[in-house]
Write a structure and sequence with these properties.
The protein has a domain at about 195-245 and about 280-360. The protein contains 17 helices and four strands. It has helices at about 1-20, 55-75, 95-105, 115-135, 140-150, 155-180, 185-190, 200-210, 215-225, 230, 235-240, 250-260, 270-280, 280-300, 305-315, 320-325, 335-350; strands spanning about 40-45, 50, 85, 110. Helix 4 packs across helix 5 (about 140-150), helix 6 crosses helix 8 (about 200-210) and helix 15 (about 305-315) packs across helix 16. The chain is globular and about 60 Å long. The protein starts with a helix and ends in an 11-residue tail after the last helix. The structure holds zinc ion (ZN). Zinc ion (ZN) binds near residues 169, 173, 195, 204 and 207.
């Protein structure tokens, strides 16, 4: 697995550097030893350090980070900064000494991670507690049947694919933040943004761009629904709005902290509990996917998002970016005109057969 991962990594670096990115070729450095998590296996590559319970699982994390790095440099024109993923399981916490060791090694971001099976187990045990409190006389079999109905088992392959797409999504957030807003996250807190210091729509767009084709298609399917117009925002609103989960953030963080242990923070994307908390967030994700497809369809240059991110990170806004660079990317020069083009694009897209989805990859 490790050999295969290294090969994949080399290919990723070659592909990315052909597009003018030199920093991705940085040689991997040895995994820092984590005194508190000695049982974890680690794989390092040019994207960072990846810890998990088995060598195969660590290699998968590393491969996902490599694929994000390749996509990120394509869409954003910059290398994805190095980071660390620590899949330590539900019983482990990520201590300050672990965080310090990884920082010292050069990890610009760190992501504690639970795999899909672990998240599902947590959901099941949380639900079991609730059911037992509410139905003290229910038999074990009855409780189990209710849990199975609420949280149906997914085939392991589907679960794995969803999980890996979710990891890539999260690494996408980290890459955008560290590549374009490298200042500490206090800035993000001050700005009140959900994922990072950048605007929430671009933060989420960067993340959905890293997802699997299956996940991308499920987001696109939402855009094609007859009631989509009731949920999608005009672009001036979309570019300014907060992430719909921002209002739910304290509750989500409490849930994530209890799931990850006091020392770590795991961002949970899928699962019914998260979906309930998310409310309308799925439309925000769908619009982010749609706007990404729309901008890619309008421009010959997939690195359009890097131009936008650099401009916004310098303190500009979308009207300013469109006025300065819209023409170069085949786009109108105001947000109002862009919104008209977006609405038209959506209508034309809706008229297409479902199989003729816009090509983003
Ligand atoms: Zn996200």
């Amino acid at each position: 697995m490790r050999i295969r991962s290294s090969l994949f990594q080399s290919l990723a670096a070659v592909g990315a550097c052909a597009m003018g990115c030199a920093a991705l070729a940085a040689p991997p450095t040895q995994c820092p030893a984590l005194a508190d998590l000695p049982a974890l296996h680690c794989v390092s590559n040019a994207q960072g350090w990846f810890y998990a319970g088995t060598p195969d699982a660590a290699a998968d994390l590393a491969a996902d980070a490599s694929s994000v790095a390749m996509e990120f440099s394509r869409y954003f024109g910059r290398p994805a900064p190095r980071g660390a993923v620590i899949a330590a399981g539900t019983a482990q916490t990520i201590s300050a000494s672990t965080t310090d060791a990884l920082k010292a090694a050069g990890a610009t971001w760190q992501l504690p991670w639970l795999d899909a099976a672990e998240r599902r187990d947590l959901q099941r045990s949380a639900l079991e507690k609730q059911l037992r409190a509410r139905l003290p006389d229910a038999s074990d079999a009855d409780i189990r049947a209710r849990i199975d109905a609420a949280i149906p088992a997914q085939p392991a392959t589907t679960q794995d694919a969803t999980d890996r797409s979710a990891l890539r999504h999260e690494i996408g957030h980290m890459a955008l933040m560290r590549a374009f807003w490298p200042a500490p996250s206090a800035q993000a807190a001050a700005a009140g943004h959900y994922g990072g210091p950048g605007p929430d729509w671009l933060d989420e767009l960067a993340a959905v761009l890293m997802e699997s084709d299956t996940m991308a298609d499920s987001r696109r399917a939402l855009l094609g629904r007859p009631d989509a117009a009731d949920h999608l925002r005009p672009l001036d609103v979309f570019f300014a709005q907060s992430h719909p989960m921002a209002a739910q953030l304290p509750a989500l963080q409490a849930q994530a902290t209890s799931e990850a242990g006091a020392g770590g923070r795991v961002r949970v994307l899928s699962g019914e509990a998260a979906q309930r908390l998310a409310g309308d967030a799925r439309w925000f994700y769908a619009q982010a996917r749609g706007v990404a497809d729309f901008l890619l369809a309008s421009s010959d240059d997939p690195a359009v998002f890097g131009s936008i991110a650099a401009f916004l990170a310098d303190g500009g806004d979308m009207d300013g970016w469109l006025a300065a660079h819209g023409n170069r990317y085949g786009l109108p020069t105001t947000v109002a005109a862009l919104d008209a083009a977006w609405t038209q694009w959506l209508a034309a897209r809706g008229a297409q057969p479902a199989t003729d989805a816009p090509q983003a990859r």
